Amino acid sequence: MITALQRHLSTWLGRWPGVAPIDVVGSVARERPGWDGRVARVIGVRSPEGAVLSVPPRDEPAVTAALSTVDNWGELLARVPRLLGADGARVYSGIFRWCEAPADFPDAGAWVDPAEPWLPSWLRPFRSVLVATDPDSGEYLAGVGLKYHDPYGQEIAVGTAPQAQGRGLARALVAQAARRILDEGAVPTYQHDPANIASAHVAEASGFPDRGWRSSGMAG
User: Fold this and answer.
1) Residues pairing with 219 in the sheet
2) Does 20 lie in the same domain as 82?
3) pLDDT by residue (tens digit) across 178-208?
4) Structural domain of residue 124, as residue ranges?
5) How many other CB atoms sit within 10 Å of the CB of residue 91?
């Protein structure tokens, strides 16, 4: 059976799973604006079984040819900026997680219009925003934004105001958002920097285990 995760990665990357241990795919999705209106020229996902690197179709031959001279995924990623004529760009890697069973926390927030003037600026680019506020003052405490990558996958981003940290709001909001995404028939995903221990704790607590999958991209 084809899962929502497979549908999402096939759409987002251009193919999933790969046809080789390291599979370079030329995808027109790498030439189109993403969830935030910006073009992501390089996106990669690596599982314990294999990896897919998605690049613009015009760059696929050069990146595929480089596979004959590299020994691993890390070496290939290091060469990608030059191969794409973007020497000043930075390749980054993250932990890639997805959720099948969100933690059973009570709902902690409400869905609001991202154009609300009282929201912090980082939430404005998202199409859907879930927010926890102080029940007395209405002050913003924590929020989640959903990145709509395609009809099959939505990525969760979360942030908590300094004065509200330590209350468990982030993990409750992430679990609440994951339940909604699953109800819509899509897969909830979550990515974070490997050094961000706080984000890792939120992911684990809300139902997004580390299965050994990694993500990559190019900035700049």
Assistant:
1) 90
2) yes
3) 999 999 999 999 999 999 999 999 999 999 9
4) 110-211
5) 19
